[in-house]
């Protein structure tokens, strides 16, 4: 493989590994904030215990996600210096904002949430989890501002061989950032919903003593998935008119249009192959749509079954189905990301900078060593997170909760 192919593979693995954590973290943060709001308003002990149990799993996933994010940042700086030189003046600020939000604000407030259970009053503690959720959204938004600019470079012009920002508002409101942002948030809720439903189904099938706890958790998960799937489909559908024409043509397999667009690209940008890899582009889109269809059918069936208490507690075949659904939202989201990114090749910045020109000056040997190191680290982090997360999920709510257990409530520190 050439250096360019190795670098693209390295980026695909590291960013894909990180995206697995992001998908669950964004969705769980929202569910936790709503759960804790319910517990705070009603003083429901069940919803409080739910918040602590699912919060523990959230913290595990968040911590490992931070590590995969660092791995991705390191490989981006090492392998793609040409991108930084050409477009760093425009999209670098959004990546800096993402780092500030995720590594400082979000992490700080998450620490306050973890250790504030018996130190903050219930309203302050509730406010903290909402700050964590909002900053998680903000972090995702800034990443998509950067990626949206690469997909659709608006608000900038080329001056002396580099991009210069001319309209910050255009960059921040780029349709290729805002629509995918809503699409990913709804997809994250789908991921979290099936995660809650699947873990709860596992415990109900085992006949755990916490029947009521996991009955309610399963219903929350199930009733989250259906509206999230419908929103996800809506935000995904409205993106198709904004896709690059070549990506759309390759996805649809329109050979005549592909040939016409290739000729137009050659006329504007000079000789070269401007057709993205057909197989992964089409495969990514088909897997995304196929898995979405399966999830929608299972979600609709689950909403119906979850309306009956007896079915929630005793439908063992349904429990197995929900357990099997846990990985599918991750598969769909990764497949969609492959379609989005591979489908814009050979461009790093659409129409302005080719991927091959964004590559750092690295030898094939150096790239191979780097690839082995980053892939090994990414796979290890995903495996460790999966094991710890599964172990925590199996333990149930009787295991040690997030932060110290609350002391006897007082008028000031009640919760």
TrEMBL record:
What are the entry keywords? Cell membrane, Electron transport, Heme, Iron, Membrane, Metal-binding, Transmembrane, Transmembrane helix, Transport
Identify its membrane topology class.
Answer: Multi-pass membrane protein
Q: Where in the cell is it found?
A: Cell membrane
Q: What is its main location?
A: membrane
Give a single Pfam family match: Cyt_bd_oxida_I
Bias (Low complexity) occurs at 396-405
Using the UniProt annotation, give all residue ranges assigned to the region (Disordered): 396-415
Residues annotated as transmembrane: 12-35, 56-78, 90-116, 123-144, 181-204, 216-238, 283-306, 318-339, 367-390
What InterPro entries has UniProt attached to this entry? Cyt-d_ubiquinol_oxidase_su_1 (IPR002585)
UniProt similarity note? Belongs to the cytochrome ubiquinol oxidase subunit 1 family.
Q: What is this protein called?
A: Cytochrome ubiquinol oxidase subunit I
Q: Which organism is it from?
A: Streptosporangium amethystogenes subsp. fukuiense
């Amino acid at each position: 493989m050439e250096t360019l192919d190795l670098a693209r593979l390295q980026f695909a693995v590291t960013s894909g590994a990180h995206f697995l954590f992001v998908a669950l973290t964004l969705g769980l943060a929202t569910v936790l904030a709503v759960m804790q709001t319910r517990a705070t308003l009603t003083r429901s002990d069940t919803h409080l215990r739910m918040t602590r149990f699912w919060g523990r799993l959230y913290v595990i996933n968040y911590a490992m996600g931070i590590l995969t994010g660092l791995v991705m940042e390191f490989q981006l700086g090492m392998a793609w210096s040409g991108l930084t030189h050409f477009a760093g003046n425009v999209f670098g600020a959004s990546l800096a904002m993402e780092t500030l939000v995720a590594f400082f604000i979000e992490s700080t407030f998450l620490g306050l949430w973890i250790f504030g259970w018996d130190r903050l009053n219930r309203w302050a503690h509730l406010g903290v989890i909402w700050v964590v959720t909002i900053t998680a959204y903000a972090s995702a938004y800034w990443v998509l501002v950067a990626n949206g600019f690469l997909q659709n470079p608006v608000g900038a012009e080329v001056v002396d061989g580099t991009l210069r920002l001319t309209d910050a508002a255009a960059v921040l409101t780029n349709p290729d950032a805002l629509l995918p942002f809503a699409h990913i948030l709804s997809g994250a809720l789908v991921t979290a919903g099936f995660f809650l439903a699947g873990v709860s189904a596992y415990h109900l099938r085992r006949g755990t003593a916490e029947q009521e706890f996991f009955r309610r958790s399963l219903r929350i998960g199930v009733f989250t998935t259906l509206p999230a799937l419908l929103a996800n489909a809506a935000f995904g559908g409205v993106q198709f008119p904004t896709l690059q024409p070549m990506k759309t043509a390759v996805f649809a397999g329109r050979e005549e249009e592909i040939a016409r667009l290739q000729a137009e690209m050659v006329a504007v940008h000079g000789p070269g192959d401007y057709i993205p890899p057909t197989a992964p582009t089409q495969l990514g889109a088909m897997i995304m749509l196929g898995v979405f269809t399966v999830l929608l059918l299972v979600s609709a069936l689950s909403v119906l079954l979850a309306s009956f208490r007896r079915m929630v507690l005793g439908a063992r075949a349904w429990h197995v189905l929900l357990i099997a659904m846990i990985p599918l939202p991750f598969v769909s989201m990764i497949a969609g990301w492959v379609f989005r990114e591979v489908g814009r090749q050979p461009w790093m910045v659409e129409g302005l900078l080719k991927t091959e020109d964004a590559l750092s000056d690295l030898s094939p040997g150096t790239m191979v060593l780097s690839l082995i190191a980053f892939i090994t680290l990414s796979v290890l982090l995903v495996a460790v997170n999966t094991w710890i997360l599964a172990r925590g999920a199996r333990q149930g709510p009787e295991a040690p909760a997030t932060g110290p257990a609350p002391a006897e409530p007082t008028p000031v520190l009640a919760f």
